[in-house]
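[User]
If only I could read backbone structure tokens as easily as an amino acid sequence. I have put the entry right below:
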Amino acid sequence: MSDTALDATGSSLSLASAARNETRAADKEHVIDAMRGFAALLVAYFHCRQVEWIGMQSFHQIVGKPHDLNSIVAYLTLPIAWGSAGVPIFFVISGYCIHRGAAQRLLNDSAYRLDAMNFWARRFARIYPVLLAALLLTLALDWTSLHFPPVSHKILDIGPRAFFVNLFSLQGVAGKTYGSNGALWTLSLEVQFYAVYPLLFALRRRIGMMPVLGIVALVNVASVFVFERNDLQFFTSFWFSWMLGAWIAELQVKREVRTQRPWMMYGAAVLLTAGGCAAFRYGQYFAFQLWALGFACYLREALKSRRQNDTVVIRVLSRFGDFSFSLYSIHLPIFVLLSSVMFRSVLQVSIFPTFVFMAVAVAVAWVFYRCVELPAMKWSASFRSSGGR
């Protein structure tokens, strides 16, 4: 995977939030919102540490054993080193949220057909106002950051070509991500997922979900050799993660009975997640696949437990899930600007500025959500057809 992609880990960030708001309030599942909120915070803080802090290895060489509050807190952030796990979490959630409504209608009516034009219109209205605003905000913030030399290495091209490559969701194929907003690499994949979904749904109607899941798995493997090995990020390389979410959506609408031994699925989730963390040392891409499988195991069981989905922690995290798309779309340029202004892009030994940076990013993202994302959601909802998805 390219250096840009490595810097950009973040999900896809969070476009799963675009799909979540399409579900009816009566069917709202707090665990979905909570997991999206958790993933958004995980990815954002992962990037925050990259931008402001010297990193665990350098910190350990300088400090050694923990002896003060800063070193203790810094060592406690060690799990954030695997913060890119938020990306496959978002892919799985996106597949679940996008497919669930259509899966329910197909279960109720085997003759149901997806209105592709209506689906694409709603996806466009939901995504592109936020994307355009995020790109313009990135331009403004990066332009400001460039006036505080030495310039951060996170800031790439902010010219017109890079702008339109990202606007048309071609980053990773026709160019790099825009400016310092490296997290946008997953956004292009989400748009590509949505572009082919009507064809995928038609195939699912014809041959069933499990054969489609198998076909996508084969395409995913082939894509590793065709695209991923050539540093090209195309949706087919991450398609299986997205399809896992769609498969879980079908199980959920069928009201599958909770298994007698849910601990087996949770155990598999833990083992696969740990395997992904171990694989991360040798390559990010393979770790993504294991993390997606691990989260799918967890989500399959968690969605069956209403009591588990309604805890205080779940409700708090779900609040962040509400504006996770906004947080994902704009957090990196904010971190880069703060680092440029406060520290002239010099990495710090102290871990505490990262918490201040995160608080600023969350606050700005909430305002961005209210001003940009909510109107986009209302515009998207206005395209809803009487037939649903």
Q: What stands out?
A: The first helix runs from residue 3 to 7. The chain has 16 helices and no strands. The chain has one domain: 3-261+300-381.
